[in-house]
């Protein structure tokens, strides 16, 4: 029997969204589909493992011995039990999730955030249809045509849901190509601690793992940490990491600025790499709490109460170890706004922790068409980079889309290559000294340092005069011909 392909799996999963479409808001139904996908996957792998043990050992202990399974699925959480129900199906699914969490400490709080027992939104007939739809796919390891297929299908669904949700999609998903660019710029390595303080659905951590694999490294000894304040998004992140086989991680619930949870001995954990796409210009970000911050994160100043961008940047700086590097997506405003933000920017520049500013094309992100930039931070710059900031204008290189622009592979390669070489290229990138920045009042606006103006085409006056003379001669010839024609007809003397 042919194995399930990634394309078949993606298509089947997206069809489950169509079953819910119309009954539930598009920004909500992702939680139900992710929950059922996760439940079905855990069930199928559990049954597959239990049957293999039974065949090999001639014993049925695989069905009840917790130690034999990464995730133990108790009877009331098994798919056959759920399939057998014809009424109160939502309640049955909720109880299945509770049972899974009771038997698996690593799933604590992940599944009970999803409530299937709302008969107005999810009547039994709709849930029967969904259960039947998921029953049609076999998610055992033996039936998958490639090892990380579930993880990739999950990522596909996250992107599809972000597309569908429009502006709200930006709350849990950063476009994959933007993440790829940041990861290739900060270059995580095996053995490192990597953190995303606004982790969303976990894409930045997963792509850090993929990058390490692509470089021949072993991601098994990588420490992955994150924090997410939205409870549903936190659950999606946990499921995403688990479906990618990344069980060794720590994702905390809560507000990173108001209540950082990634602590050891009451102190902030320090990381080799920090990567993030915080919400742009967040108002009500936690200014009051920042004024009495016990972790010393805001040494360069407190941002304005209606713009939290530089609060996240300072948090990231505070969580880098002495050799740590970070990449963060920011709105352009942080490069030139004055007042409190200007003072913070000055502090960051004088401390020499900003390594690069990279301008991105407009309309790359969900929910905003404004152009953004990448801020690259480094606690331990190379000798030749100290006292300098590399500024690159990558705003012109992209693939234009109907609703959203995207970065192509060649655009990413171009930016990474020039950043790695750290060489000046006219109208594209250059290294700027802190002295020059100081002369410009610590303004980091890219256009101040990179000439982005189009060169006007030189006007060839001689050629234009020749063309005018030619046109004038043609006009005279036409006029002469018209006069002769009218004379023949007797209209002229």
Using brief descriptors, characterize the structure shown.
Rossmann fold; alpha/beta; two-stranded antiparallel ribbon; Ferritin; 493 residues; 3 domains
> How many domains make up the 3D coordinates?
3
Can you count the beta strands? 11
Instruction: Give the N-terminus to C-terminus distance in angstroms.
Output: 98 Å
Which regions have little confidence, pLDDT < 50, spanning 5+ residues?
none
Give the helices and strands as they follow along the chain: HHHHHHHEHEHEEEEHHEHHEEEHEHHH
Main sheet summary: 9 strands, mixed
* Overall CATH class of the largest domain: Alpha Beta
Describe the SSE topology.
Layout: H1 6-20, H2 29-57, H3 79-83, H4 89-103, H5 124-135, H6 149-165, H7 176-186, E1 193-196, H8 203-214, E2 223-228, H9 231-243, E3 249-253, E4 263-264, E5 267-268, E6 271-276, H10 287-291, H11 309-318, E7 320-331, H12 333-336, H13 339-350, E8 354-359, E9 372-378, E10 388-393, H14 409-421, E11 429-433, H15 434-439, H16 446-449, H17 461-488
Parallel strand pairs: 1-2, 1-6, 2-3, 6-7, 8-10
Antiparallel strand pairs: 4-5, 7-9, 8-9, 10-11
Helix pairs in contact: 1-2, 1-5, 1-6, 2-9, 6-9, 7-8, 7-14
């Amino acid at each position: 029997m042919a194995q399930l392909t990634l394309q078949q799996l993606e298509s089947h999963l997206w069809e489950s969204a169509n079953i819910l479409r119309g009954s539930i808001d598009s920004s909500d139904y992702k939680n139900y589909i992710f929950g059922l996908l996760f439940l079905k996957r855990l069930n199928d792998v559990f049954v597959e493992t239990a049957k293999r043990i039974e065949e090999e050992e001639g014993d049925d202990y695989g069905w009840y011995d917790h130690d034999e399974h990464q995730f133990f699925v108790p009877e009331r959480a098994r798919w056959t039990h759920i399939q057998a129900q014809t009424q109160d199906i939502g309640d049955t699914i909720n109880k299945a999730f509770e049972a899974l969490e009771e038997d698996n400490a690593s799933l604590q709080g992940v599944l009970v955030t999803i409530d299937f027992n709302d008969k107005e939104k999810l009547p039994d007939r709709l849930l029967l249809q969904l259960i039947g739809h998921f029953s049609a796919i076999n998610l055992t390891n033996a039936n998958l045509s490639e090892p990380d297929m579930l993880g990739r299908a999950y990522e596909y669904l996250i992107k599809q849901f972000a597309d569908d949700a429009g502006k709200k999609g930006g709350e849990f998903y950063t476009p994959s190509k933007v993440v790829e660019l940041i990861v290739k710029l900060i270059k995580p390595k095996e053995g490192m601690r990597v953190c995303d303080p606004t982790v969303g659905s976990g894409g930045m951590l997963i792509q850090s793992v993929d990058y390490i694999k692509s470089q021949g490294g072993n991601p098994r000894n990588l420490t992955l940490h994150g924090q997410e304040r939205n409870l549903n998004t936190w659950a999606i992140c946990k499921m995403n990491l688990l479906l990618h086989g990344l069980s060794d991680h720590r994702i905390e619930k809560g507000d990173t600025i108001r209540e950082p949870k990634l602590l050891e001995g009451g102190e902030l954990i320090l990381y080799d790499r920090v990567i993030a796409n915080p919400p742009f210009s967040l108002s009500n970000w936690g200014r009051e709490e920042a004024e009495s911050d016990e972790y010393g994160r805001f040494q360069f100043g407190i941002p304005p109460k209606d713009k939290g961008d530089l609060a996240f940047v300072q948090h990231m700086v505070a969580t880098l170890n002495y050799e740590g590097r970070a990449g963060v997506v920011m709105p352009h405003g942080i490069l030139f706004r004055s007042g409190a933000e200007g003072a913070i920017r000055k502090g960051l520049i004088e401390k020499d922790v900003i390594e690069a500013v990279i301008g991105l094309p407009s309309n790359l992100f969900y929910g905003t068409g404004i152009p953004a930039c990448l801020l690259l931070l480094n606690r331990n710059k190379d000798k030749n980079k100290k006292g300098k900031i590399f500024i690159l204008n990558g705003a012109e290189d992209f693939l234009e889309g109907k609703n959203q622009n995207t970065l192509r592979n060649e655009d990413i390669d171009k930016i990474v290559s020039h950043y790695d070489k750290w060489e000046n290229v006219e109208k594209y990138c250059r290294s700027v000294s802190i002295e020059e920045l100081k002369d410009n009042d610590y303004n980091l606006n890219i256009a101040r340092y990179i000439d982005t103006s189009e060169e006007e085409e030189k006007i060839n006056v001689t050629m234009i005069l020749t063309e005018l003379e030619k046109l004038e001669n043609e006009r005279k010839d036409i006029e002469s011909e018209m006069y002769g024609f009218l004379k023949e007809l007797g209209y002229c003397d």
